[in-house]
Write a structure and sequence with these properties.
The protein contains 9 helices and no strands. It is mainly alpha-helical and 171 residues long. The longest helix has 18 residues, at 11-28. It is globular, with a radius of gyration of 16 Å.
């Protein structure tokens, strides 16, 4: 199951991958406490674009930044707010925000129009470099590549502040 890559927006493939992961976890004797982390790692792995799918690294950086912005915001954002925050003079983020939110729908449902994770444990996992790195190692064995999936809270907080300042300057 660890070799299956990016089921993307196909819910049947994603479910099959998660069920295969659960079978593997049982067979490998993985503790229940780690299974939630493995589920979150699977979701991130499939949600973020990767170079093997022909995606460029900037797409993964953008997707990670979008996820980090949602998690680090003190109040839930609306999609329009997120687009405004992440857009620059050189780059309109509308399509990237839309596709990233679609691929993260299982952890950021936004059914009420408010972008926030559906449970605090998701934010805790994503903001913990150790937990996310350990769980992602099943899907991304290469440590340097794995780092591109991990949210660096300190760096993303700086980027979030810069996005806010750029938005204020545009107004």
């Amino acid at each position: 199951a660890a070799t299956k890559r990016n089921a993307g927006f196909d819910p049947d493939k994603r479910l099959k991958n998660v069920l295969a992961d659960m079978r593997d976890e049982g067979r490998l004797g993985i503790r229940w406490a780690n299974r939630v982390d493995n589920l979150y790692a699977r979701i991130l792995f499939e949600a973020f674009p990767n170079s093997r799918d022909g995606s460029d690294e900037t797409e993964k950086v953008a997707a990670r930044r979008i996820l980090a912005t949602i998690i680090l915001a003190k109040e839930p954002l609306r999609k329009e707010d997120l687009v405004a925050l992440t857009s620059t003079e050189e780059w309109d983020s509308q399509n990237t925000v839309t596709s990233t939110l679609l691929s993260l729908k299982s952890i950021i449902p936004a059914s009420d129009g408010q972008l926030r994770t559906c449970h605090k444990s998701i934010s805790d996992f994503i903001l913990s470099t150790e937990r996310s790195s350990t769980a992602l190692s099943r899907f991304v064995p290469d440590e340097s590549e794995r780092g591109s999936y991990i949210v660096n809270a300190e760096e993303e907080n700086k980027q979030f502040a810069l996005m806010c300042l750029r938005l204020m300057l545009r107004m």
